[in-house]
Amino acid sequence: MRTEIRLYDTYEGKLREFVPLSGNEVDIYYCGPTVYNYVHLGNFRPTITFDLLTRFLKEEGYDVKCVSNYTDIDDKIIKESLKEGKSEKELSQFYIEAYEGCLTQLNVLPLYCHPRASEYIDEMVDLISTLMDTGYAYKGKDDIYFSVKKIPSYGQLSKQKVEDLESGKRIEVDSLKKDPLDFVLWKLTDDDGIKFDTKIGKGRPGWHTECVVMANDVFKKKMIDIHGGGFDLKFPHHENEIAQSEAFNNTRLANFWMHVGFLLTNGVKMSKSLGNSILAKDVLQRHSGNAVRLFFYQSHYRAPVNYTEESLTACDKTISRYQLCMTKGKHRLELANIDTKGNLLEEDYLSFLKALSNDLNTANALTVVDRLVKETNTLLAKKDGDLLRLRDVLTTLDRLFDVLGFFLPVESLTEEDRKKLEAYNKARAEKDYPTSDRLRPLLQEKGLL
Ligand code: AMP
Ligand code: ZN
Fold first, then answer.
1. Helix pair angle (207-219, 121-133), 10° resolution
2. What residue's CA is closest to ligand 1, atom 20?
3. For the CA of 33, the nearest atom of ligand 1
4. Could you report the per-residue pLDDT of 41-93, keeping only the tens digit for each?
């Protein structure tokens, strides 16, 4: 029987039972990076969260398609490519490859697809021209804008009233727009940056149009199951995606809107523009991908979390403990000629899934892992530990680690290692301490003890 899954939906502002819109299929789209430089660690928090959600839903038997885009058309990309003397395409390709290197290190599952905004220009132009025909969009003096006032539900996602937004200073009054809330769908320009000569004029798309078009197009659906990103994307990015979807498809684009809390440095949001970024590629040189995942899992995905080097070092230690437990446990079974494939411990497995089904409560899920790691160590410490129980504990741990995306491989013993381990165990049993003392460092060096 499947676990009842509850996820926090920002649009409704509450936890709701998650049921796919169509049969067994789950479509997830989360906003990816603007590829104009190396991304910081915070950019990977949504990536890890939606990878975990994908893994969990797959474990529950759903057929999940997870998609994330690359924003490869943006004024920041143009500025940077001029600075670096490269074309926008070359520049984004370079940073996409750097990003994908981190995805591999973080053991992120391959996505259903990874669309780039530059590949969807025709579809964006079609959307914008339809919005113009239906009166939702208009040509200003310089750009094509979306008329926000035409959408009565505008502000529902970010829980803001249109009147408050208008009177607030956050929105700059722009004399080229009919209303200060209106946003750019297509920037009409003949500047040196990337541009496309189309039926709506020469120029390039606005960011909010890029994502709504890609989300609709890759799934060929007007409404998908889950759309997500970091907290900062609620407004205006996601609010503006919803507005276009309401106008074009009469839907709110996604059944669930999920937002991931910020990674902070010294209590302040990690951000490229604030200059307090810790680059993901640098962190991944100092710490394993497993440790980065564990660091994020220790907090709830919606809560802010502060980056410290010490907490990542502590996560590395915990991961080494997990690795050693799996290595020692599986080798003990090998030495006893017991096949490592056992049965899942149902109670532990179900309580792990139950924790994740409660809006991805990773901290509670980790308590099940810790309990099983402890039990493994207790069984290993006993001379006559129950090896069949050990086998079931390890089988369960393997499954839980897989759902969490931890990569903890254990190589089979070589003949030489087997002999050394046997000699070590025999020496200890016979209290031949000089021999066991000589063998211990050799075995420890290979991670066998
Ligand atoms: P950007 O390239 O700035 O559009 O960001 C790509 C993704 O990273 C988006 O989903 C952002 O919401 C997310 N993001 C950016 N900064 C942070 C942060 N400090 N913590 C968590 N997520 C972030
Ligand atoms: Zn987006």
1. 110
2. 262
3. 2
4. 999 999 999 999 999 999 999 999 999 999 999 999 999 999 999 999 999 99
DSSP E strands, 140-182 = 143-146
Q: Determine phi and psi for 70, rounding to 5 degrees.
A: -115, 125
Estimate the crossing angle of helix 387-404 against helix 44-59, to 10 degrees: 130
What is the CB < 6 Å shell around ligand 1?
31, 33-34, 42-43, 45-46, 229-230, 232-233, 260, 262-263, 269-271
Amino acid found at 42: G
Q: What is the DSSP string of 91-125?
A: HHHHHHHHHHHHHHHTTPPPPSB--BGGG-HHHHH
Which residue do the tokens 């393997």 mark?
398
- Find, among 62, 47, 72, the residue nearest to 2 by Cα: 62
CA distance 306 to 309: 10
Q: Are 32 and 75 in contact (CB under 8 A)?
A: no
By three-state DSSP, how is residue 405 classified? Answer: coil
What is the phi/psi pair of residue 197, to 5°?
A: -90, 110
pTM score, two decimals?
A: 0.95
Give the helix, strand, coil percentages of the chain, each rounded to 5.
50, 15, 35
Q: How buried is 443 (Cβ within 10 angstroms: 0-12 exposed, 13-18 middle, 19+ buried)?
A: middle
